[in-house]
Amino acid sequence: MAQIKVEQPDGGDPVRTFRVVDDDGVSLWYRSLGRNKKSCAINMRAPEGQQLVRQLAAKCDVIVENFRPGVMEKWGLGPEVLRADNESLIYTRVSGYGQTGPYARRPGFASAMGGLRYVNGFPGETPVRANLSIGDTLAGIHAALGILLALYSRQKAQIASGDGKGQIVDVSIYESVFNLMEGLVPEFDRTGLVREPSGTSVTGIAPTNVYRCADGKQVIVSANMDSIYKRLMTEMGREDLMTAEYGTNQGRVRHEKQIDEAVGAWVGARTADQVLERLNAISVPCSGIYSAREIMSDPHYAAREMIEQVDVNGRTLKIPAIPPKLSETPGHTDWAGPDLGTHTREVLRDLLGIRDDAKLRQLADAGVIGLAKSQ
């Protein structure tokens, strides 16, 4: 099954230049993000380009678009048009706020509206964000799940009646973020409680926090289950914190500051390696805090083969491997994110039967398609 990424010929996906770029000016992130996709450069603003996309969609199982609502309709590529040509098409739409509602056409920051930004950071301070595009990634995961559900529904209909129609999958970034918000809504509905940012700990669960070690490194220790908490306190020699008053999570939350100080003092007297060795030995959840440096050198990452090496124009590049791991059909990277237009000729030839080089060159010269520099 081929994944065809249709991009504008004049620059392509903006992610191609995001974050750290390689010597060739292409984002290293894109080389990972665009893996296994065939880059087909077509100008969707041009009528001839729109016709090419329409012909491609007629031969596809799924189309995914992430323009602001109304853009695809303006180009004559909305779901009504494409599904009229291909009634089995799964038409997936990813946008900030969804295809309906008063905010549908707004640009914006969906992680803020989804509730994530508010609970990040420290009480009374400006909310912070992780240095990652979490909302976009979550929307992609929800889109993939929605596509699988739609494909399964279509397959069931085909088996039952021989006539499996597609459907529209409407994914919003803010709802994908909102879906992670645990008990935020029922807590507020029943009690009026607004969950606030909690810094390095987790509200209502204790002890769970980040602690500084004697060597300056930091570790996370979480002993929120009763039996785990007892093992931790026994290791620390703090029988005074093991009375009935501390026997449940609710009781420990009432004494969270006292427990945190005790754990912090115990951790602070030891190096990170010593803390992790002793706590892992008694099955208390703990971890160092990994940067890219620790990830790349960690033996567990290596044993799980979570870092793989790909070729990028004759040079090797390490990128994350593909989870989850399937026992019979594991995912793997066939090629890194390709240069813009690498597969334009191949896609138009194999799917649309356009084999005339002169025709392709004419379309390229007119700005309707883009061909890779090597072509």
From TrEMBL:
<dbReference type="GO" id="GO:0016740">
    <property type="term" value="F:transferase activity"/>
</dbReference>
<comment type="similarity">
    <text>Belongs to the CoA-transferase III family.</text>
</comment>
<dbReference type="InterPro" id="IPR023606">
    <property type="entry name" value="CoA-Trfase_III_dom_1_sf"/>
</dbReference>
<dbReference type="Pfam" id="PF02515">
    <property type="entry name" value="CoA_transf_3"/>
</dbReference>
<keyword id="KW-0808">Transferase</keyword>
<dbReference type="InterPro" id="IPR003673">
    <property type="entry name" value="CoA-Trfase_fam_III"/>
</dbReference>
<protein>
    <submittedName>
        <fullName>L-carnitine dehydratase/bile acid-inducible protein F</fullName>
    </submittedName>
</protein>
<dbReference type="InterPro" id="IPR044855">
    <property type="entry name" value="CoA-Trfase_III_dom3_sf"/>
</dbReference>
<dbReference type="InterPro" id="IPR050509">
    <property type="entry name" value="CoA-transferase_III"/>
</dbReference>
